[in-house]
Amino acid sequence: MILLPPKQSISSSIVSHARSGSLAAAIGGLDTLVFKAGLGQNAQYIRERAGAVAGWLAVNIDHKLNGRGDEVISLAGSDVDALVIPTDEERAVGIQLLSVRPQALSLVP
Questions:
Q1: In whole angstroms, what is the distance from residue 37 CA to residue 39 CA?
Q2: Whole-model pTM?
Q3: pLDDT 10s digits, 24-37
Q4: Any idea what DSSP says for residue 32?
Q5: Which of 12, 15, 39, 105 could pair covalently with 43 via S-S, beta carbons 3.0-4.6 A apart?
Q6: Residues with Cβ < 8 Å from 65, sequence gap 6 or more?
Q7: Whole-angstrom Cα distance, residue 59 to residue 37?
Q8: Which of the four pLDDT bands, split at 50, 70 and 90, describes residue 11?
Q9: Residue 16 is inside which H or E element, if any?
């Protein structure tokens, strides 16, 4: 279980964590762990805890790199790369919408 700061409850993250762990075990491990968008991109504490919990998968987070918010936050020589990738979800949704309904652009003031 990922430990969260007080008064912060994110059940979908816990469910996702459990599913990810099961999948990683089933496929024999990870090559890369990517933190993106929202908490993954913006919460150093969450990345730190996720790395600690995923230690059995050979995930090793470098505290200094994580604290600075670098793109690569895994320790040098780690078996698993840990990355922080900025995500613009609103833009991605907009691109998808326009690919399906180009006329939606005419609705924008």
A1: 6
A2: 0.64
A3: 777 777 788 888 87
A4: E
A5: 39
A6: 72, 73, 74
A7: 20
A8: very low
A9: helix 11-27
